Amino acid sequence: MSTQPAGSPTWMDLGTHDLDGAAAFYGEMFGWSFDDQGEDFGHYNMITNNGAPVGGAMSSLMGPEGPTEEPQNPTAWTVYLHSDDIESTLNKITEQGGKIYYPAMPVGELGSMAIAEDPSGAAFGLWQPNQFDGFEFTGKHGSPVWFEAMVSDFDAALPFYREALGWDAHAMGGDENEEFRYVTNGEDRAATAGLCDASPWGDMPSYWRLYIGVDNTDESLEKLKELGGTVLDGPEDSPFGRLATVQDPQGASFQIIQIQE
User: 154 vs 116, 180, 257, CA distance in Å?
Assistant: First the structure.
């Protein structure tokens, strides 16, 4: 059984209508390599960063019966949370007001996956590892460094992640703040993910977002624009590093943040 804290991000993957374009963009942007796993795995691509697994990618032009002309899903990143017992977790998700999009299914001998939604509407994946635990944090350029759920209904989402996913929730800074409500799964350096009350920013859909570490945020933004990406917000300085919200040429958004020494 994995020693990873319950409900912690363990994998991320990209669904895109242009897999070749995405591979070219992220390869130039972060030095990622895409490796097609073959027909048995629906041509799912494993993404590595200098040999370390960081995520996956698949074509959205693929349905249950094979290739399609229209994308089956929006181009977007999905964050997967760890479960020691995926069936038990799925039961708790429905008990706590969540929804199941795709029930548990085995992925060869690697593990089992499912897709669900929290009560605020944020979709996420579940991963129960067998032979494969998930991504590796390298702390280097192109490594995933943080994950957080931006939710429109914080009061519904917080007990959900505690009860259904087993979060050990702590208010950021140790104190409840009614103006900026943010909790982490775990405390201080042991924290693995965040939950943010996004309601002060207006009416927006709830979603999980991910942060990719870079050596220099401003230089990375210039490269991103050269590669056809878009800067959606920032850059701005934060206590955790200089960050920005960006979008790849196919439309998937993510954050970049400068890795601090």
Answer: 17, 11, 25
